[in-house]
Amino acid sequence: MADYDTLPPLPSYTLTPLLPLVPPIPDKLLTLILPIAAYWCLSMFFHWIDTMDYFPQYRLHTPAEVVKRNRVSRWEVVRDVVIQQVLQTAVGWILGMTEPDDYLGREEYDVAVWARRIRLAERTIPGLLSLVGVNASKLGNNLVVGHPILAGALLGGQYTMRQSTPNLSGGVAAPMPAFATWEVVLAKLIYWVLVPILQFTVAIVVVDTWQYFLHRAMHMNKWLYTTFHSRHHRLYVPYAYGALYNHPFEGFLLDTLGAGIAFKLAGMNTRQGMCFFTGSTIKTVDDHCGYALPWDPLQHLTSNNAGYHDVHHQSWGIKTNFSQPFSTFWDRLLGTVWTGGDVSARYERSRAAAEKAMNLDMAKSVTGFSASMSATQLPQPYQGDMRNAKELSAIPVKHRQPQPPPGKAELQAAASRQQILDEKQAGGASVLADESKEENEAQSFTRRNARKRTASSLSTRDNFKGLSQRMTGSTCIGGLGA
Fold first, then answer.
1. Residue 118: pLDDT above 90?
2. What are the C-alpha distances in Å from 325 to residues 40, 243, 329?
3. Three-class secondary structure of residue 24 per DSSP
């Protein structure tokens, strides 16, 4: 108690209610509104540039892929997102009822508490210096004239020149110890900057850990995947407002509950929670936006961006890249990051197949002809194709598709294919059959057009070089998360 008696006194304070940030909306209500508003505003921005065909060079997928590869309608996506946001709002309202109201007036008192802690830490300096043979008392006395602040710190926080003289009840002025200027400045830095940074860091670590292990469990357990998580993966080509397209139970467990726990454990106040919930929502939408915009800061803050998460949505990468929404720490630590190498050819093949399917649909709707009518056509113009088709049928099935490299990548590919087969509502075997057909057609095209492909490959590689650089910062998309 004697140690505290010699410390500078703490200031008195009077609490007043904190005025709403946006009158007349209470801050707690605004905390519920802002994440939903941010979700739809950012989603509609990406939807607008998508429908207006702005920045096509930065798309991860073409509009044809959205139409042909996804196994859910946009209306179903909007419906399920709204359901999740209703549940999110209800849980947030209950969470807000457990939080105390925010007040102003105690800030100087809290800064003084930190200044006291700094002063107490200074009292350990003489003892620490004595361990290395330095006489702190003698050194401090030698410096007291020229460097009084340094001398005071060396003497264990004895700032004899720093005195305050408040009037006591009897009207007699009594000298009182006061904080040094540097102690107050450091205390303010801790209170206003370092503590909030620590709180947000704790919240990010908690939500990343929560989502990684639950997300991974959803993929490793067949029942959890087919019952809940497979709904989200009906979007093989993600788009912004599909970010929260989930089964309602999964949305509550993975997103709403995880963020609420992070908020509580970090000890945030209402306005900090407002920033955290809104920021997490913006990051989630950005990770599903389908664009690798070079000026988008969220694409560069961490390697967990739209390109990284897009690999997880593909049939061949669905058992990898589980981390979300902020860092890739757990993927890297536990070895679940994509290791299958360069994926440029996979993206190119999917683009070409989707465009071809769209063109066939358009041709049928315009001309009235269908593929079945080809039996009536003369074979002469297509003899080369027929010959190549016969050659293809003679190739063993195991050689018709590129073989994955041995080891971990092969296990990842096998696990991803099995997960696709397990979920029939999301396409099941038909997804893999379509991909096999695309690969066979690509091989046939390669044989028929070897010289033409050689001439055109440079432009194709140039296009996908830019894509891979945006997604991974290298010349190879296979570097995602590596």
1. yes
2. 18, 11, 11
3. coil
